Amino acid sequence: MDMTEAHDDSFGIEVILPDGDKPAPCCPHGPALLFEKVSKGGETGRRFYACSACRDRKDCKFFQWEDEKVSEARLLARESENQSKRPPFTQQEYCNRFRKFSSLPLDEKKFCQDCQILLLPGECEAHSSHRSTVVTVAQLRRPSVLLRPLDNKKSNAQYLFTDRSSHFLLDTLAALGYRKVLCVGTPRLQELIKLRNLEQKHEPMKSLLLDIDFRYAQFYSQDEFCHYNMFNHHFFGGEASSAVLQAFLTESGGEKVVMVADPPFGGLVKPLANSFSLISKTWRKLQSSDSSNADMPMMWIFPYFFEPRILECLPSFTMLDYQVDYDNHPLYKHGKTGRKQSPVRLFTNISPKDVVLPKEEGYRFCSVCQRFVWSLNKHCAKCNVCPSKDGREWRHCSTCGKCVKPSWRHCQSCGRCALPDHPCGHAQEKEGCFNCGSLKHKRKACPLKDTHRVSGHRSNVKNSGGKNVSHKPLLKAKGKRKSGAARRAKKMAALSM
Ligand code: SAH
Ligand code: ZN
Ligand code: ZN
Ligand code: ZN
Ligand code: ZN
């Protein structure tokens, strides 16, 4: 399978972004997203609301048809369910607790590992049967080490940066002159910024963490943490919380701000891009008039095979060759000989030539492409680019007229390059346009997409949509089509080839 091809990350289900017309119903994760099943046959699928943050019903079972009448009783039940899922303390309360905790003598500074909470003296009794540890001052400054990483594969697995990657990010941003870093789902970066400020060797930087994991609220003040959902741009703390973001985005005293986001890889690109655009819009409004059409500088960390999808949503972005790696993910290691390479890259609207990648790790500057590239990414004179996406050395196929992966061979009957053991003759048909059946483009690029759906064209396709829609089609795609997560897993597995 071509990992670099347009990646339909919604497996026949499209997200319809909110247009402000009617408010979406809420689950514990804020306003739900509106989805539409795209059926192969042609008829418009029935639209439904589902949780924005959780891809697995086990994590959030919210479901509602768009045109469904919801009884008063169900609304009330839903409201109390949402209430019950709220954090036990407000951000203000967390702050006060942290202040108290910090002033405790060392042997009274306890952290309950079972409840993942800092304990104040009066609370230890209630947790006496739980596992708890004493927290040193140094540990208190590294919440991402103290807290157990969430490991829910589908919705919220937390992969923490290695020192190599987090230091690279911070050094790069500092060198580019940024003094404020908006950390969206990057708790370890925020932590490093605060640690460095303590050293007083560098220019101080400000940071604000936006994250759905409210365990982090325990460690930060109100202007350092907002409980936030990046799939629907929802602030759980309401107006007060979005005001914190606004204040942070205001570049008073010439302090330049940049965003670094590292969303869960199972996440949908379109709603993420929408949230980041909204953040940029907020930033722009707060700018002095001369930059009224500028975009807020951003870095979005995501696997390379999402490149077409991300660029489709955010055309001003470029993918950089830098391989981001993680402490607690064995697969995502930086590419050295004999080790697997990380598929995770930086997508940014900062000029690629300004993002200097470390020479000692094997990156070099390509003067033709005007960007830093990985050592194995050799410039192809025929394509006039450094073509590699996955970190391996690609090879030019003169028949295809483009560079392809080293493991691929040109297939005469398919008329293109593919893996030697590809399902010959079928691959392309399956990957044709979902809407009109053409093999020349994907559904997203279909010229007929927005006018109407062509019916009948691909009626012979198995599992044609419409009927058999399971209760929550998004999360349980039936039949042969693999779920987005499954296909991504396959891609991840394919990386080892
Ligand atoms: N590499 C980063 C962590 C990335 S893991 C680091 O080292 O700092 C993904 C992060 O996104 C986690 O912190 C997780 O809590 C957060 N997250 C997951 N889903 C989210 C959502 N819907 N909204 C906001 N943050 C989310
Ligand atoms: Zn406990
Ligand atoms: Zn080439
Ligand atoms: Zn070829
Ligand atoms: Zn073939």
Structure description:
22% of the residues lie in helices and 19% in strands. It has eleven helices and 25 strands. The strands form eight sheets. Strands 15-14-13-12-16-17-19-18 form an eight-stranded mixed beta sheet, sandwiched between helices. A four-stranded antiparallel beta sheet has the order 1-4-5-6, with no helix packed on it. It has a three-stranded antiparallel beta sheet with strand order 8-7-9. The termini are close together. The structure holds S-adenosyl-L-homocysteine (SAH) and zinc ion (4 copies). One zinc ion binds next to loops. One zinc ion binds next to strand 23.
Give the helix/strand layout:
Elements: E1 13-16, E2 26-27, E3 30-31, E4 33-38, E5 44-50, E6 63-65, H1 72-84, H2 91-102, E7 110-112, E8 117-119, E9 132-134, H3 137-140, H4 143-146, E10 151-152, E11 156-157, H5 163-175, E12 178-184, H6 187-199, E13 206-211, E14 225-229, E15 234-235, H7 238-249, E16 256-261, H8 269-285, E17 298-303, H9 307-313, E18 318-319, E19 344-348, E20 363-366, E21 371-374, E22 395-397, E23 402-404, E24 409-411, E25 416-418, H10 427-430, H11 484-494
Parallel strand pairs: 12-13, 12-16, 13-14, 16-17
Antiparallel strand pairs: 1-4, 2-3, 4-5, 5-6, 7-8, 7-9, 10-11, 14-15, 17-19, 18-19, 20-21, 22-23, 24-25
Helix pairs in contact: 5-6
This protein binds S-adenosyl-L-homocysteine and zinc ion (4 copies).
